[in-house]
Amino acid sequence: MSNLIPVVIEQTSRGERSYDIFSRLLNDRIIMLNGMVTNESASLIIAQMLFLESADCDKDIHFYINSPGGSVTDGFAIIDTMNYIKCDVSTISVGQSGSAASLLLASGKKGKRFALKNSEVMIHQPSISGGLQGQATDIKIHSDWLEKTKETLNGIYSRLTGQPIQKINEDMERDCYMTAEQAKEYGLIDKILLYRT
């Protein structure tokens, strides 16, 4: 069931044309992240952003996010692309934006970072999933990488939210869940959307 993708049929002057729903949304400059931030999802999102920039670099891209998070390095790849392209990227949290996805949400163009009313946002320090094994030197390498990544994340969150590094560091020690209103007060988003205007 999870592989079913709805098809949209449109009437054109040449007859009917069918699109899968995601292609139709891309036509309206809408990109969606539904699920984990992975190498595969990052590759698709980056490709769509680059395509939309080449199609029209003066129009905004609307990036809808419903994700518990995932790979921070794949998240960085998406953020670097958002910053690299000429288009403004508007981010909209739908459901949840946790972990790496909260960083994607906050990385939208200032003034164009939104959440729907019942969205939740979660920030926390980076972690290694799965059991880490190996020699002490290998574990030290991973520990050093985690500490460096944590410092990078704290700096990015501080720059995007205006919060002091010390507060970010304290808040990210454990999972820190926020309502849409709390995320707005924190500076992760700019506005809560109740309905389309």
UniProtKB/TrEMBL annotation:
A GO cellular-component term linked to this record: cytoplasm
EC number, as in UniProt: 3.4.21.92
Gene3D superfamilies registered for this protein in UniProt: 2-enoyl-CoA Hydratase, Chain A, domain 1
InterPro entries, A to Z: ClpP, ClpP/crotonase-like_dom_sf, ClpP/TepA
Major localization listed first in the record, in broad terms: cytoplasm
Pfam families: CLP_protease
Keyword set includes Repressor: no
Keywords: Cytoplasm, Hydrolase, Protease, Serine protease
SUPFAM superfamilies assigned: ClpP/crotonase
Domain of life: Bacteria
Catalytic activity annotation: Hydrolysis of proteins to small peptides in the presence of ATP and magnesium. alpha-casein is the usual test substrate. In the absence of ATP, only oligopeptides shorter than five residues are hydrolyzed (such as succinyl-Leu-Tyr-|-NHMec, and Leu-Tyr-Leu-|-Tyr-Trp, in which cleavage of the -Tyr-|-Leu- and -Tyr-|-Trp bonds also occurs)
Subunit text: Fourteen ClpP subunits assemble into 2 heptameric rings which stack back to back to give a disk-like structure with a central cavity, resembling the structure of eukaryotic proteasomes.
Job of this protein: Cleaves peptides in various proteins in a process that requires ATP hydrolysis. Has a chymotrypsin-like activity. Plays a major role in the degradation of misfolded proteins.
Name recorded for this polypeptide: ATP-dependent Clp protease proteolytic subunit
Organism: Gottschalkia acidurici (strain ATCC 7906 / DSM 604 / BCRC 14475 / CIP 104303 / KCTC 5404 / NCIMB 10678 / 9a) (Clostridium acidurici)
